[in-house]
Write a structure and sequence with these properties.
The protein is mainly beta. It contains no helices and 11 strands. Helices cover 0% and strands 47% of the residues.
């Protein structure tokens, strides 16, 4: 059973930066075999895909964060990070790390929550104007 633990959330002013981290443990396949993503859910809204990375290292971003967020997968220490720059109040949400290894991903579904089986409990990001 894969365990994912997010950290790095907090409160910053608009225009600021944060780095989220996700630590993975308990994986039964090589960490390099997992495709992973970051999702967020604001109060009263559906969970949405923010960024994802496939097993070849290709990255995918929601239009709302392109040019501001960068996802990175660190195979040496089994972590996933999300560098968030130029933060906006609308980025306020609970951020979740997700992972899967089943091979069911396509370039069209890596930002879909249903593509992933393993989820962390989230870390809260609050951006003030």
């Amino acid at each position: 059973q894969v365990q994912l633990v997010e950290s790095g959330g907090g409160s910053v002013q608009a225009g600021g930066s944060l780095v989220l981290s996700c630590a993975a443990a308990g994986y039964t396949y090589p960490y390099t075999a997992y495709y992973m993503g970051w999702f967020r859910q604001a109060p009263g809204k559906e969970r949405e895909g923010v960024a994802a990375i496939n097993t070849d290292g290709l990255t995918f971003y929601a239009d709302s964060v392109k040019g501001r967020f960068t996802i990175s997968k660190h195979n040496a220490n089994s972590t996933l990070s999300l560098q968030m720059n130029m933060l906006k109040p609308e980025d306020t949400a609970m951020y979740y790390c997700a992972a899967d290894v089943s091979g069911s991903w396509t370039t069209g579904n890596l930002l879909s929550a249903g593509t992933y089986v393993y989820w962390g409990k989230g870390t809260l990001v609050n951006i003030s104007s």
